[in-house]
């Protein structure tokens, strides 16, 4: 796509009120596979952010008054443009984020699916009439857009985390200010460019790029014109933003970190469990929030599972995401590599058995060799901290209750997985897991059709499905009297 080609290596502007804004300074966006700078992007600050909020605020009344079929058609056109430019968007995503091209294409499809879904769902944003408490009164419940939405998103899914918020927000009649992750602003800007091409009016969608997120975040969380902050990212940053939002009592949605358990019971189909394990653990080099962090495997099946998993993990091809056949790309930055190495070293120093991997890969300093650790115990850092890398630590358990207790023994509650065949065990386990999402004999669960989100310190609110639309609406109760 020509506009993407032009951007690379040049100063890419941000989007404020329908205008492309360059800013006084720029910051570099690097390719994590090579360390090369692929583009420079506008460095915006507090003043620019206030302008973006003002633009969204001013665009709000017209957008919400636009007939729903028209809003829906514009979103549908945005979906089509993203789909038409899928190859270019995927390549851009691989360049700035590192994920293998096939996964990047998958993310474009997944990201676009939210726009397609919410373009339709907008038409079903219904209110209610309720039985009245007086003969001369009628009770109505109107469902209205919440207003200006700030969407603050992470680098691991540079497109889907944006569309999962913006599509329902725009569908509901809200306007948005996006603050993409500093590592991956290009995909966000390309998506916004296509939104304008699709005909979304100036100011309905704004993108504020910044390498110092706190300054922009301060405005987005304290400006009273912003009525909802929808954040996806780490739990510490989410807690900080929640606290900041308290000053103006904003609605919030927090999609935060996880510590996903993946339980394999004795009666599981071990080959299916290994397939699920590979999909759940090694997608995006282990950098997904719903990624398995801990494998909990029952005694009777433990050795078979570890041996089959190790065999499959050894075969995973590591390399630049643009190279043919790569399935494990680089980690996002050096700090990520250091954290993964620390988790492996800590486990091994406390007696874990290294089955494969365990160190950086010859492909480059940002690449970590897919790793399996056996005989892992709950004293090790991998038990409590989100590793966010291609490391599969395998814990052992004997009784079902022990697995449930281990699985729930975390402040997080995003996704959990388990493999079993006995139907009583399946029901008991499904109900006992304190998680927002559970995969039963399934390692990949994300879809625009279902509510995505966590409990406990993994967050507040849901994205996707009709619940995802409700998040961007307010109820207004109207009592019509004197009839
Ligand atoms: P992060 O919290 O460091 O950053 C997320 C976003 O917040 C980025 O845009 C960043 O610039 C911004 N940010 C950071 N400090 C800020 C501040 N003070 N004010 C305003 N914005 C600020 O997270 P990350 O490293 O980009 O992403 C990885 C984390 O995200 C992991 O913990 C992962 O589990 C989580 N995640 C969760 C989900 C989910 O749906 N639950 C999805 C993807 C990622």
TrEMBL record:
Domain Aldehyde dehydrogenase: 21-478
Pfam families: Aldedh
GO MF terms, alphabetically ordered: succinate-semialdehyde dehydrogenase (NAD+) activity
Biological process (GO), any one: gamma-aminobutyric acid catabolic process
Keyword Glycoprotein: no
Active site: 255
CDD domains the UniProt entry points to: ALDH_F5_SSADH_GabD
Family annotation (InterPro entries): Ald_DH/histidinol_DH, Ald_DH_C, Ald_DH_CS_CYS, Ald_DH_CS_GLU, Ald_DH_N, Aldehyde_DH_dom, Aldehyde_DH_Superfamily, Succ_semiAld_DH
Keywords linked to the UniProt accession: Oxidoreductase
Highest taxon of source: Bacteria
Segments crossing the lipid bilayer: none
UniProt keyword Oxidoreductase present: yes
Membership in a protein family: Belongs to the aldehyde dehydrogenase family.
Alphabetized NCBIfam families for the sequence: SSADH
Protein name: NAD-dependent succinate-semialdehyde dehydrogenase
Originating organism: Vreelandella populi
